[in-house]
Amino acid sequence: MDLRKQKTEEAIRDAFLHLRATRPLERVTVRELCDSARIGKATFYLHYHDVYELSERMQADLVRSILDGIPHPQLILTDTPTFTREFSTAVWSKKNLIDILFEGAQASVLPSAIDDALQRELEQLSPDFAGDERAHVVLTFQVYGAYYAFMRYSSTMPADKVIALTSELAEGLWTHQGDGGGRA
Questions:
Q1: What does the angle CA 12 – CA 15 – CA 19 come to, to the nearest 5 degrees?
Q2: What angle do helix axes 3-20 and 51-68 make, rounded to 10 degrees?
Q3: Distance between CA 132 and CA 123 in Å, rounded?
Q4: Using CA atoms, how far apart are residues 71 and 93, in angstroms rounded to an integer?
Q5: 8 A C-beta contact, residue 87 and residue 117
Q6: Residue 146 has pLDDT above 60, yes or no
Q7: What are phi and psi of 28, to 5 degrees?
Q8: pLDDT tens-place string over residues 44-83
Q9: What DSSP letter does each residue of 85-130 carry, written as one string?
Q10: pLDDT tens track for 23-42
């Protein structure tokens, strides 16, 4: 990408984040975004169809960034507490962007997007995961549970305490199966 196009893209995204920090997505207009970014509407439309496409791309980039912050996603299969720590730390590192991009009506989009992406990634990393229904359910439970616990309590407790508690709770997820046996 040439430097001019990159700077324009950064200006659009920065302006969008500034506007989204103060209002819901439905109230952000292309005109005010362009004014804030100091670009013309035609320039905006060279990059995006509308503010919803911009939002979706920025959300997808944030999901990818969170996933990149989980160094060992396959640990959900063998060491759920460590996976939970890595997952929660990755979420914590992006909390400011999460609060902006996934605010209001968008709040439930993030855990679903992370869960879907992790399910696909783990199916590629581990053939055992692809056919293991229990593993899929545990991953979903872990992602949603850790995410919502973290988002709910990170403003009233230190983040490291929330991460430690969710990791501790994750300890037994793989050790109890319906037939009473443990996971090998």
A1: 135
A2: 100
A3: 10
A4: 14
A5: no
A6: yes
A7: -90, 125
A8: 999 999 999 999 999 999 999 999 999 988 888 788 888 8
A9: HHHHHHHHHTHHHHHHHT-GGGTTHHHHHHHHHHHHHHHHH-HHHH
A10: 999 999 999 999 999 999 99
